[in-house]
Amino acid sequence: MNRILRLLSLLLVLPAIAGLQLCAQSGANLNDEEQDKLREAQDPAERIVVYLDLLQSRLDKYDEYRRKPADPRYDTGGYLDEMLVDYIALNDETKNWVELQYQQTGDMRRGLRALLERGPLQLAQLRAAQQSPDNYFSQYGDALRDAIDQLTDTMDGATKALGEQEKKFGQMKREEKAEAQASKVRVKEEKKRTKEERKLRKR
Questions:
Q1: CB–CB of 61/86 below 8 Å?
Q2: What pLDDT score was predicted for residue 180?
Protein backbone atom coordinates (compact mmCIF):
# COMPACT_ATOMS: atom_id res chain seq x y z
CA MET A 1 0.00 0.00 0.00
CA ASN A 2 2.83 2.41 0.92
CA ARG A 3 4.54 1.62 -2.36
CA ILE A 4 1.38 2.53 -4.29
CA LEU A 5 1.05 5.80 -2.37
CA ARG A 6 4.66 6.69 -3.11
CA LEU A 7 4.10 5.96 -6.81
CA LEU A 8 0.97 8.13 -6.89
CA SER A 9 2.82 10.96 -5.17
CA LEU A 10 5.61 10.72 -7.74
CA LEU A 11 3.13 10.87 -10.62
CA LEU A 12 1.59 14.01 -9.15
CA VAL A 13 4.96 15.70 -8.64
CA LEU A 14 6.50 14.85 -12.04
CA PRO A 15 4.51 17.43 -14.10
CA ALA A 16 5.54 20.20 -11.71
CA ILE A 17 9.19 19.09 -11.87
CA ALA A 18 9.02 19.06 -15.68
CA GLY A 19 7.62 22.59 -15.65
CA LEU A 20 10.37 23.78 -13.31
CA GLN A 21 13.06 22.15 -15.43
CA LEU A 22 11.75 23.82 -18.57
CA CYS A 23 11.84 27.20 -16.84
CA ALA A 24 15.32 26.54 -15.47
CA GLN A 25 16.66 25.50 -18.87
CA SER A 26 15.31 28.58 -20.59
CA GLY A 27 17.96 30.97 -21.85
CA ALA A 28 15.38 33.77 -21.84
CA ASN A 29 15.31 36.46 -19.17
CA LEU A 30 12.02 35.79 -17.39
CA ASN A 31 10.69 37.85 -14.51
CA ASP A 32 8.92 36.23 -11.55
CA GLU A 33 5.45 36.77 -13.01
CA GLU A 34 6.43 35.18 -16.33
CA GLN A 35 8.00 32.19 -14.58
CA ASP A 36 4.83 31.73 -12.54
CA LYS A 37 2.68 31.79 -15.66
CA LEU A 38 4.80 29.09 -17.28
CA ARG A 39 4.78 26.96 -14.13
CA GLU A 40 1.02 27.20 -13.80
CA ALA A 41 0.41 26.35 -17.48
CA GLN A 42 0.79 22.57 -17.27
CA ASP A 43 -1.88 21.94 -19.90
CA PRO A 44 -0.04 21.19 -23.18
CA ALA A 45 -2.04 23.68 -25.25
CA GLU A 46 -2.19 26.38 -22.57
CA ARG A 47 1.61 26.42 -22.21
CA ILE A 48 1.99 27.16 -25.92
CA VAL A 49 -0.37 30.14 -25.60
CA VAL A 50 1.67 31.49 -22.67
CA TYR A 51 4.84 31.18 -24.74
CA LEU A 52 3.14 33.05 -27.59
CA ASP A 53 2.26 35.89 -25.19
CA LEU A 54 5.86 36.06 -23.96
CA LEU A 55 7.20 36.03 -27.52
CA GLN A 56 4.86 38.86 -28.47
CA SER A 57 5.93 40.90 -25.45
CA ARG A 58 9.58 40.70 -26.61
CA LEU A 59 8.62 41.75 -30.12
CA ASP A 60 6.56 44.67 -28.82
CA LYS A 61 9.48 45.90 -26.68
CA TYR A 62 11.81 45.50 -29.64
CA ASP A 63 9.53 47.54 -31.95
CA GLU A 64 8.87 50.17 -29.29
CA TYR A 65 12.57 50.72 -28.58
CA ARG A 66 13.40 50.69 -32.28
CA ARG A 67 11.01 53.59 -32.88
CA LYS A 68 12.48 55.74 -30.11
CA PRO A 69 14.74 58.68 -31.04
CA ALA A 70 18.45 57.86 -30.84
CA ASP A 71 19.97 58.63 -27.45
CA PRO A 72 23.77 58.36 -27.06
CA ARG A 73 23.35 57.62 -23.34
CA TYR A 74 21.88 54.21 -24.12
CA ASP A 75 23.20 51.17 -25.95
CA THR A 76 20.23 51.00 -28.29
CA GLY A 77 21.75 48.42 -30.62
CA GLY A 78 22.73 46.19 -27.69
CA TYR A 79 19.23 46.38 -26.21
CA LEU A 80 17.59 45.50 -29.54
CA ASP A 81 19.94 42.55 -29.92
CA GLU A 82 19.14 41.43 -26.37
CA MET A 83 15.39 41.47 -27.06
CA LEU A 84 15.87 39.33 -30.16
CA VAL A 85 18.16 36.89 -28.37
CA ASP A 86 15.48 36.63 -25.67
CA TYR A 87 12.87 36.02 -28.39
CA ILE A 88 14.98 33.23 -29.90
CA ALA A 89 15.44 31.58 -26.49
CA LEU A 90 11.68 31.63 -25.87
CA ASN A 91 11.06 30.24 -29.32
CA ASP A 92 13.47 27.39 -28.53
CA GLU A 93 11.52 26.68 -25.35
CA THR A 94 8.29 26.63 -27.34
CA LYS A 95 9.76 24.08 -29.76
CA ASN A 96 11.09 21.95 -26.89
CA TRP A 97 7.65 21.95 -25.26
CA VAL A 98 5.91 20.96 -28.49
CA GLU A 99 8.40 18.14 -29.06
CA LEU A 100 8.03 16.89 -25.47
CA GLN A 101 4.23 16.89 -25.57
CA TYR A 102 4.22 15.29 -29.02
CA GLN A 103 6.32 12.41 -27.66
CA GLN A 104 4.01 12.12 -24.64
CA THR A 105 0.91 12.43 -26.86
CA GLY A 106 -0.33 15.51 -25.03
CA ASP A 107 -3.27 17.21 -26.74
CA MET A 108 -1.81 20.49 -28.04
CA ARG A 109 -4.31 21.16 -30.80
CA ARG A 110 -5.71 24.41 -29.40
CA GLY A 111 -2.21 25.75 -28.71
CA LEU A 112 -0.88 24.68 -32.10
CA ARG A 113 -3.78 26.42 -33.84
CA ALA A 114 -2.98 29.58 -31.88
CA LEU A 115 0.67 29.29 -32.87
CA LEU A 116 -0.21 28.93 -36.55
CA GLU A 117 -2.57 31.90 -36.28
CA ARG A 118 -0.27 34.26 -34.37
CA GLY A 119 3.08 33.04 -35.70
CA PRO A 120 2.70 34.56 -39.18
CA LEU A 121 1.87 37.95 -37.60
CA GLN A 122 5.07 37.82 -35.55
CA LEU A 123 7.01 36.74 -38.61
CA ALA A 124 5.63 39.76 -40.48
CA GLN A 125 6.87 42.04 -37.67
CA LEU A 126 10.35 40.55 -37.86
CA ARG A 127 10.51 40.76 -41.65
CA ALA A 128 9.30 44.36 -41.62
CA ALA A 129 12.25 45.24 -39.37
CA GLN A 130 14.61 43.34 -41.66
CA GLN A 131 13.32 45.20 -44.71
CA SER A 132 13.79 48.62 -43.11
CA PRO A 133 17.23 48.51 -41.43
CA ASP A 134 18.23 51.36 -39.13
CA ASN A 135 21.56 52.67 -37.84
CA TYR A 136 21.84 49.80 -35.33
CA PHE A 137 21.14 46.97 -37.76
CA SER A 138 24.78 45.84 -37.75
CA GLN A 139 24.47 45.09 -34.03
CA TYR A 140 21.28 43.02 -34.16
CA GLY A 141 21.00 41.92 -37.80
CA ASP A 142 22.33 38.41 -37.15
CA ALA A 143 19.89 37.86 -34.29
CA LEU A 144 17.04 39.15 -36.44
CA ARG A 145 17.85 36.66 -39.19
CA ASP A 146 18.07 33.86 -36.63
CA ALA A 147 14.72 34.87 -35.13
CA ILE A 148 13.07 34.72 -38.56
CA ASP A 149 14.63 31.33 -39.36
CA GLN A 150 13.77 29.85 -35.97
CA LEU A 151 10.16 31.05 -36.01
CA THR A 152 9.72 29.68 -39.54
CA ASP A 153 11.07 26.34 -38.34
CA THR A 154 8.71 26.37 -35.35
CA MET A 155 5.68 27.00 -37.55
CA ASP A 156 6.70 24.21 -39.92
CA GLY A 157 6.96 21.82 -36.97
CA ALA A 158 3.63 23.02 -35.57
CA THR A 159 1.91 22.42 -38.92
CA LYS A 160 3.14 18.82 -38.99
CA ALA A 161 2.34 18.21 -35.32
CA LEU A 162 -1.18 19.60 -35.67
CA GLY A 163 -1.85 17.40 -38.69
CA GLU A 164 -0.72 14.31 -36.78
CA GLN A 165 -2.70 15.26 -33.68
CA GLU A 166 -5.88 15.98 -35.64
CA LYS A 167 -5.56 12.53 -37.14
CA LYS A 168 -4.72 10.81 -33.86
CA PHE A 169 -7.29 12.47 -31.60
CA GLY A 170 -9.92 12.38 -34.35
CA GLN A 171 -9.45 8.61 -34.55
CA MET A 172 -9.64 8.33 -30.76
CA LYS A 173 -12.91 10.27 -30.77
CA ARG A 174 -14.36 8.02 -33.45
CA GLU A 175 -13.30 4.94 -31.48
CA GLU A 176 -14.85 6.34 -28.29
CA LYS A 177 -18.09 7.07 -30.14
CA ALA A 178 -18.14 3.57 -31.62
CA GLU A 179 -17.51 2.05 -28.19
CA ALA A 180 -20.29 4.16 -26.64
CA GLN A 181 -22.71 2.99 -29.33
CA ALA A 182 -21.63 -0.64 -28.86
CA SER A 183 -22.13 -0.25 -25.11
CA LYS A 184 -25.69 1.02 -25.66
CA VAL A 185 -26.42 -1.95 -27.90
CA ARG A 186 -25.07 -4.35 -25.24
CA VAL A 187 -27.21 -2.75 -22.53
CA LYS A 188 -30.29 -2.91 -24.76
CA GLU A 189 -29.67 -6.57 -25.57
CA GLU A 190 -29.11 -7.39 -21.90
CA LYS A 191 -32.43 -5.76 -20.97
CA LYS A 192 -34.19 -7.65 -23.73
CA ARG A 193 -32.64 -10.93 -22.58
CA THR A 194 -33.59 -10.27 -18.95
CA LYS A 195 -37.15 -9.47 -19.99
CA GLU A 196 -37.43 -12.71 -21.99
CA GLU A 197 -36.04 -14.74 -19.07
CA ARG A 198 -38.67 -13.26 -16.76
CA LYS A 199 -41.40 -14.24 -19.20
CA LEU A 200 -40.09 -17.79 -19.34
CA ARG A 201 -40.01 -18.06 -15.54
CA LYS A 202 -43.64 -16.94 -15.30
CA ARG A 203 -44.86 -19.76 -17.56
A1: no
A2: 54
Cα 114 versus chain centre, distance: 9
Name the nearest CA neighbour of 106 among 45, 51, 35.
45
State in Å, rounded, how far the first CA of the chain is from the last one.
52
Higher pLDDT, 168 or 200: 168
The upper half-sphere exposure of residue 109, i.e. CA atoms within 13 Å in the direction of its Cβ, equals 9
Residue 28 is predicted with a pLDDT of: 85
Please spell the DSSP secondary structure of 63-129, one letter per residue: HHHHHSPP-TTS-HHHHHHHHHHHHHHHHHHHHHHHHHHHHTT---HHHHHHHHHHHHHHHHHHHHH
Burial of 90 (C-beta count, 10 Å sphere; 0-12/13-18/19+): buried
Report the sign of the C-alpha dihedral through residues 145, 148, 154, 155, in that order: negative
Among 54, 168, 158, 56, which residue's Cα sits nearest to residue 111? 158
Query: pTM score, two decimals?
Result: 0.73
Q: Cα–Cα distance between 4 and 81 in angstroms, integer? A: 51
Tell me the C-alpha distance between 59 and 62, whole Å: 5
At 70-91, the pLDDT tens digits run: 888 889 999 999 999 999 999 9
